[in-house]
Amino acid sequence: MSVRVVDSADVDPSATLGDGTSVWHLAQVREGATLGTNCIVGRGAYVGTGVRMGDSCKLQNYALVYEPAVLEDGVFVGPAVVFTNDHYPRSVAPDGTLKRGDDWEAVGVTCRTGASIGARSVCVAPVTIGRWALVAAGSVVTQDVPDFALVAGVPARRIRWVGRAGVPLDPEGEGVYVCPRTGERYVEVDGQLTEETR
């Protein structure tokens, strides 16, 4: 395996790309960014300074992942998704002078293992998207998303639970849910879903 960077992509020499990673047309990977093995950075996607991505992550076309975002292994970021990084964005200071990089404190979005963010969603930092959670297309995430939650809307709210396969779980009663695709079982306790241990 090797790293693939197409000619029109802009990858800073200080960025680290893991084995098997591909960076496609017009994408930009900034200074100090770290991408794990087998990642895909789609056309026109942006990976900010110092962003950390685990193994097997996919950034679809025109996704904007601003620093200091952290993506754990297996995270999917759909087309035109935006991760913000500023509590109170302004172009200028109160006196009218142009703000610079040192004039604000960056806050990031964290995506836990296996999380998926649907097309054109906006994640307003600082938020954490839980393990194997699914953010529906077009959602605006303004608060943390629990593990295995399916959230949708503006602002995003939990509407179902999903399993590792990404499909909604079927309730089986008494806080137990089953994945219709894999048969895996999950248990809900106090608004949190975990995999059933045997």
UniProtKB/TrEMBL annotation:
* Molecular function terms from GO: transferase activity
Pfam families reported in the protein's UniProt record? Hexapep, Hexapep_2
* UniProt lineage: Bacteria, Bacillati, Actinomycetota, Actinomycetes, Micrococcales
The record's section on InterPro entries has: Hexapep, Trans_hexapeptide_repeat, Trimer_LpxA-like_sf
Q: Which UniProt keywords apply?
A: Transferase
The record's listing under PANTHER family reads: ACETYLTRANSFERASE, ACYL-[ACYL-CARRIER-PROTEIN]--UDP-N-ACETYLGLUCOSAMINE O-ACYLTRANSFERASE
Entry protein name? N-acetyltransferase
| Highest rank taxon of the organism | Bacteria
